[in-house]
Amino acid sequence: xxxxxxxxxxxxxxxxxxxxxxxxxxxxxxxxxxxxxxxxxxxxxxxxxxxxxxxxxxxxxxxxxxxxxxxxxxxxxxxxxxxxxxxxxxxxxxxxxxxxxxxxxxxxxxxxxxxxxxxxxxxxxxxxxxxxxxxxxxxxxxxxxxxxxxxxxxxxxxxxxxxxxxxxxxxxxxxxxxxxxxxxxxxxxxxxxxxxxxxxxxxxxxxxxxxxxxxxxxxxxxxxxxxxxxxxxxxxxxxxxxxxxxxxxxxxxxxxxxxxxxxxxxxxxxxxxxxxxxxxxxxxxxxxxxxxxxxxxxxxxxxxxxxxxxxxxxxxxxxxxxxxxxxxxxxxxxxxxxxxxxxxxxxxxxxxxxxxxxxxxxxxxxxxxxxxxxxxxxxxxxxxxxxxxxxxxxxxxxxxxxxxxxxxxxxxxxxxxxxxxxxxxxxxxxxxxxxxxxxxxxxxxxxxxxx
Length: 451
Ligand code: SF4
Fold this sequence. Notes:
Layout: E1 2-7, H1 11-26, E2 30-32, E3 40-45, H2 50-66, E4 71-76, H3 77-81, H4 83-87, E5 94-96, H5 104-112, H6 128-131, E6 137-140, E7 142-143, H7 154-158, E8 162-163, H8 166-178, E9 183-187, H9 202-212, E10 217-220, E11 244-246, H10 254-260, H11 266-279, E12 284-291, H12 298-311, E13 316-320, H13 338-360, E14 367-379, E15 382-388, E16 394-398, E17 409-418, E18 423-428
Parallel strand pairs: 1-2, 1-3, 3-4, 4-5, 6-9, 9-10, 11-12, 12-13, 16-18
Antiparallel strand pairs: 7-8, 14-15, 14-17, 15-16, 17-18
């Protein structure tokens, strides 16, 4: 059977998709990237905003239209929160609640009586990730969240916190690495809460993964800023732990943060960013900001813009506030009209673009390792390979001579920053002197550290 897996939303949805992909492959099914030739289509939906819910409905309808003969299975936050709406969509064979999604492959087998293809029909040496055209593995380490941020629908959809054991996670990463995966991203709804139910924590998990696997690159998914403390920054002393942290702040105004039910104040974030950057100078700190939260005054919005400027984020995910039924924020007074939210988003986009340019302009002349992605893309009329620096800067690789192999880790020498595409343009295989003195990435680990 050919199985197409589709996902919307967060990295956790992506991690779950990969888990299912491995499960279907282990059962002898074949993965396909297109819906058109699939026998089974599985859609992992998202409900984080109204827009995400709309896109989930569209993806389900499109999958059904493109291949009405395929069996259609739907899971994820949107289908778990809105089972009534899902039932109205045509052509769905099975809806699997979030609470059952770890067993999705088994449930599909039982309920849809899926028959395995002979093992020889599959590609045993190719991991599920490669079959789906990716070369970075998202590893789900936990699910659920104990916090109650007032805007968050995800915590309702995903339920209480539960963590996978460190052993299970280490074994999964070792298995992926033995099948040529070079980078793992630990992900979850609230990864800062990892291990609370097992008497351990995220720092212990990261240390063990670094000690007991040889995966060349390890990253973290989104991490709540209040979950960083103690000796966390020392983890970056290991060159295999990638220096990028996505710390969703949501607002730079303490009064808005209070209404959001967030557990971090502006002053704490500023101090945290300073401490982390002191220890890891090239750490890339990115964030999420919600524009137009209920009751957000022009002054509160100005505080958010000032905060973003003060930190100098190289990248900001900007969301217009979207009221989700069932959340406390949806009932707050002072819901703002769409026009104001749009204007605020635009203003922040403008600032974020400037901050990105400022940050990226520091890099020409420097060297770092890039994990080459499977796909190629067009840059100024030419097909180029691209990948990400250790601190997650998108880098296209200009090639003279042999093209870098997909999924290889190459040394890149950055020649310029292309503002139009927002990427660094580098040459692969540069073997000259390291970057300008004092500007090199990871001076303590040296130029050739394999990341
Ligand atoms: S910490 Fe994150 S997942 Fe948990 S309630 Fe807040 S926004 Fe939602």
